[in-house]
Amino acid sequence: MVEIWEAKSKKEKADELPVIVPLVVYHGKDRWKIGTTLGETITGYKNLPEAIKKLVPNYKYLLYDLSQYTDDEIKGEAQLRILFTTLRDIVTKDSKGLQDSIFRAISYLRELDNKQTGIEYFETLMRYIFNARADLTRVV
Hints:
The structure is a single chain. About 45% of the residues lie in helices and about 5% in strands. The protein is mainly alpha-helical. The chain has two domains: about 1-70, no CATH class; about 70-140. The chain has a two-stranded parallel ribbon. Helix 3 (about 80-90) runs antiparallel to helix 4 and helix 3 packs parallel to helix 5. The N and C termini lie far apart (about 45 Å).
């Protein structure tokens, strides 16, 4: 957020800062266990005197914990469904489960009108998967 505001004020010479809604998209193996305010991540925040708390940022952020969503619950355009299911499955599925996720992504790509965009998106998807998962080095 600070970097966005700095860029706006320094590079663009803006007098006003844009509104930023903080969003966390989580895709770990386990469910998100941290609170949804910045103060919950700051050591000793809850024990600070109220006068000091007023001076320390403690915004709430939106949390999308992808680990808890099923395929049917992930909605949107094909690219968004591919992104979210891949992020969810990259750490939670075994090789076979991830392979199923890739095949599902391919079926989503068929929904795209622009086939060249679909091919480029698939290439990016595969690069991400093979970089994120070292256990997928041999053909099954």
